[in-house]
Amino acid sequence: MRKTLWIICSLAYLLSSCESKAQTFPDETWTRAENPETMGWPDAERSNFTRYIVDSTNITGLVLVHKGQIVLEYGNINENSYIASCRKSILAMLYGKYVENGTIDLDQTLEELSITDVTELLPEEKKATIKDLISARSGVYLRGSNGGDFRRFAPERGSVAPGSHWLYNNWDFNVAGHIFEQETQNNIYDEIETQLAKPLQMQDWDRTLQQKSGDSNISKFPAYHMWFSTRDMARIGLLMLRNGKWKDVQVIPEYWVHEVIKQRTSYSEAQKSVPLLKEDGLDLGYGYMWWLIENTNDPKLKNAYSAQGALGQNITVYPNIDVILAFKTNSVYRRRNSIQTQMKVIKKAIEIYDAK
């Protein structure tokens, strides 16, 4: 009898372990949790958070996903709009397939790749590699064809060796997009469709909205702007949380996901290069075009990372608690959120979660 009881208990433990590790993914539509409160998201706290979003932010769409199910949503989550610099994090994901199969060699230099621009590159700048570009450590301080970076904090051109200094400069990211297309012979937007939109069954992806822009008199490399819906941004986050795997398919190489969110620049170095970052409300390091949340005592925030864009575009992944947050601010409505507001939302969203 005792042996039978031991076997039953062992089987029950194994079954419960398997159930706890089961991973939920959306199909053509997202699943909404039937009772978020039982999952650790009290109704009263979720209502308070929603009131905060309404009263203290200009967010136009937000979803909070726990264990693959929506536990909170606000605003218009199916509306496609400009996601600003979140585009860079998505490009980083696209790189993985081609780094793995050898099409892209991250150690190739700008000189080897025949990169030239309206303003001629200095000999030292030509030594920068693709790896330097996607980690914002190129040492090339030319103006990008679009604004919205920290180039005003750049050292004098040619004064630092590639790889030795972090600076968030759109020239790096735009050239990284150009190199991706040059080496793969594929369009970035077509790659989003084949690598991400179709496998992830994105509900709102619209290839016709996607277009590049920039001032070609400043730089010949345009910015590869992107338009996504909030709920499709959440799919991007869930793919990253699941280490590049969607259901039974490895969409992005698992090792590449870890490479992307591996620290290339610490928060202290980033703040030394750009003192304004000290005012953001969270300490942010940098990987391959993803921001890393560092120097936090909150276990819910440890190991978290974000794609962030101007005006209030954000995808944050919280691996320790199996949570995704995606939100945006559609500029069409003449609304915007500061980076400080974004950081507050990132923190407040999980303050309401009670793991017990």
UniProtKB/TrEMBL annotation:
Domain spans labelled Beta-lactamase-related: 63-334
The species this protein was found in: Flagellimonas lutimaris
Keyword field: Hydrolase, Signal
Pfam families assigned: Beta-lactamase (PF00144)
Taxonomy of the source species: Bacteria, Pseudomonadati, Bacteroidota, Flavobacteriia, Flavobacteriales
Extent of the signal sequence: 1-22
Record-given protein name: Class C beta-lactamase-related serine hydrolase
InterPro entries documented for this protein: Beta-lactam-related, Beta-lactam/transpept-like, Diverse_Enzym_Activities
GO molecular function annotation: hydrolase activity
UniProt superkingdom: Bacteria
